[in-house]
Input
Amino acid sequence: MVFEKRELLENVFTEHSELQLWKCMRGGEEDYEIIINGVFIMATYNSGSSEFLIRGAVDRMRGDGPLSVLIAGLGMGFTVSEACRCERIESIDVIEMEEVIVDWNRRYFDTYEQSCYDQGRASLHIEDFYVYAMNSTESFDIVSIDIDNGPMLLVNEGNEKVYTKRFMGVVEGVLNDGGLCVIWSCDRDRRLEQSMESVFDEVEVEELTEDFKGRDVSYYLYFGRKREHK
Output
């Protein structure tokens, strides 16, 4: 994939990070990239694995009742949009630490599901996911975590604590019985698997391949199921 033009639209410094939004032109088509602290995070031209965070989790849920979802990381809105398209999902809580990411979604990305928020089906919280989960009194059927590139390529060193055994126990605590935690990572990390295996009843890793700038790149989704108490 060769871009004819690449333009820096915004460069924002926050309490936590330096965030850049780039616009890329190729064959008359427009794409966007988000860079945080000098590290590529995501782009509008590779969305499949972000969408599959929800599809893969819903497909693995037992029964056919309505579902509640907690999404950690708004990103470019692909995961939220997929959740909004799923009729079985009744409520969606989205946690995003950086307000500028929310602003970019509203102004630049056609994945932003304003109607989903207007209808009250989705709620947006500007908060650190770690803090939110540690203090949550709510419970969910699915917790989707995509706040970094995974534990092996951190954008912010403070996110390391999200992938620990201790925090996996916190996530397990906000899941309903039989619920699923799903984590996005750019690499396969045995330490993450072990942290999840020490907490969840079942753990599965699925490898997905996406086209990234003309080459096939693998991404990994980690699914952890909370035990069902009968």
